[in-house]
């Protein structure tokens, strides 16, 4: 059986992995941490437990159950998703390499909100971007900035470097990453605002300094579901991934479940959608030619 990649190891991702694995698929779960579930101190509205338990314990039990069935786990971060050659299958981009899969379930939770920096919302589509691979070409010979301090931000900067005249990494006061790519200019000051007339023209720092740029790429934290969706052409409803009744997106072979699809942000809903997505992905894999 061809491989299914599940991104996210919360209740939606683990449920998808369990159902697909029990159906005979080779399943790899990619992710670090268990998202919002790990922050839940007590869960007492979920079926099957006569006493409350912590979110962390529920997550642990789910992961151990998946491992018992033979699900493989890779503790790494997804920074991009693209088609393989001839658009037959997918390549998941990690900070240090890639993973191949013939189908993907995106279950990494709701997208993180960008920092509340004045100008980000106002200039969306006019110099503010959330996908360097999509828009880097438009900044040939121009200066661009990437907001972020993690692996995701570095991956976005790497996509810009071959095109832009100069690429600036803005950590917004966070610790600077190690091993910066050659040619990347580091700024650790906090960002006060992004300004311009019709389009982005400059970044203003809290200390009073400014930086002239034509493009500003938001890559704060890790790559959320919205950012990944934009990179590969998945349709959105607001900030959530648009899916049909079988949890399929508009991109054949990519499914989504849990908080990434919006609606009721509860464990019960995530488990249901994960099960549906896992079964739909299994059906898709069975229908692919060997």
UniProtKB/TrEMBL annotation:
Residues 3-274 form the FAD/NAD(P)-binding domain. The keyword Oxidoreductase applies. The keyword Repeat does not apply. It holds the Pfam family Pyr_redox_2. Keywords: Flavoprotein, Oxidoreductase. Signal peptide: none annotated. This is FAD-dependent oxidoreductase. It comes from Selenomonas sputigena.
């Amino acid at each position: 059986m061809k491989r299914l990649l599940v991104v996210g190891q919360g209740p939606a991702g683990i449920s998808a992995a369990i159902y697909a694995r029990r159906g005979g698929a080779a399943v790899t779960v990619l992710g670090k941490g268990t998202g919002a579930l790990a922050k839940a101190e007590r869960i007492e509205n979920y079926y099957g437990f006569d006493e409350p338990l912590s979110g962390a314990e529920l997550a642990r039990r789910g992961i151990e159950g998946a491992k018992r069935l033979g699900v493989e786990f890779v503790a790494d971060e997804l920074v991009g998703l693209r088609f393989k050659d001839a658009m037959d299958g997918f390549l998941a981009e990690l900070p240090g390499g890639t993973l191949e899969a013939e189908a993907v379930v995106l279950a990494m939770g709701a997208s993180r909100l960008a920092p509340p920096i004045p100008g980000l919302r106002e200039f969306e589509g006019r110099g503010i971007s959330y996908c360097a691979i999509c828009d880097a070409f438009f900044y040939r010979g121009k200066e661009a900035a990437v907001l972020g301090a993690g692996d995701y931000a570095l991956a976005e900067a790497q996509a810009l470097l071959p095109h832009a005249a100069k690429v600036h990494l803005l950590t917004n006061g966070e610790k600077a990453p190690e091993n910066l790519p050659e040619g990347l200019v580091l700024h650790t000051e906090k960002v006060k605002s992004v300004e311009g007339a019709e389009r982005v023209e400059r970044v203003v720092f809290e200390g009073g300094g400014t930086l002239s740029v034509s493009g500003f790429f938001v890559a704060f934290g890790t790559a959320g579901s919205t950012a990944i969706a934009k990179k590969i052409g998945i349709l959105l409803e607001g900030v959530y991934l648009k899916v049909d009744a079988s949890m399929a997106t508009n991109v054949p072979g990519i499914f989504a479940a849990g908080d990434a699809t919006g609606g009721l942000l509860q464990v019960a809903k995530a488990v249901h959608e994960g099960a549906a997505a896992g079964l739909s992905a299994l059906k898709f894999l069975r229908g692919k030619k060997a």
